[in-house]
Amino acid sequence: MLASHADRERAVDVLRAGYGEGRLEKTEFDQRVARAYTARTVGELALLVADLPAGPVPQPAVVGVPGTFLPAPRPRTNGKAVAAAVCGLLCVPTFGLTGVPAVVLGHVARREIQRGGEGGDGLAITGLVLGWLSTACWALVLTLLVLVGLATG
After folding, report:
1. Core-most of 28, 37, 80, 101, by most CB within 10 Å?
2. For 104-142, what is each residue's pLDDT tens digit?
3. pLDDT at residue 57, rounded to an integer
4. Which ranges of the chain does DSSP label H, i.e. alpha helix?
5. How many other C-beta atoms are found inside a 10 Å radius of the C-beta of residue 102?
6. Is the Cα dihedral 145, 150, 152, 153 positive or negative?
7. Residue 14 contacts residue 49 (beta carbons within 8 Å)
8. What is the pTM of this model?
């Protein structure tokens, strides 16, 4: 049977794979490729690649990194801890209105973090500190207002 252009290209691909794997030297590879392009029959092409595998030999799988060398997975951040930190940061622009929610969310978040092993303890503490500072400032302001009212009244 006469060889087609596609048959010749398939034979050259097998030769390339063999050369890439080190099965053929450069001169032998060049000679076989030249013969493949001048081959008239499929039988001639089969003789050129008979001593080679039908394509690239699969390489052994890459061994993964042992688990002991992988970084430890990060725990999920507690959502209430994030909310506590946001409320704590919003104490200044809201004039302390988010202080109490920051304290409540901070305490709830810390309890959930201790029980469930989630992350975000630093965020919860940030919300607690800012919330308590805001609440303390408002308590001081109200105390001063009451004392000034009692002293003048």
Report:
1. 80
2. 999 999 999 999 889 999 999 999 999 999 999 989 999
3. 46
4. 5-20, 26-38, 42-49, 79-89, 99-116, 121-152
5. 30
6. positive
7. yes
8. 0.53
Distance CA 84, CA 103 (A): 7
Structure token digits, residue 51: 């001593």
Write the burial class of residue 77 (CB in 10 Å: 0-12 exposed, 13-18 middle, 19+ buried).
middle
In the block, tokens 């890439």 appear at 20
Phi first, then psi, for residue 65 (nearest 5°) are -75, 135
- Phi and psi based region of residue 102 (left: phi greater than 0; alpha: psi -120 to 50; beta: remaining): alpha
Angstrom distance (rounded) from CA 135 to CA 96: 7
Integer CA distances (angstroms), 14 to 5, 7, 39, 50, 122, in order? 14, 11, 15, 10, 61
Note whether 52 and 12 are within 8 A (CB): no
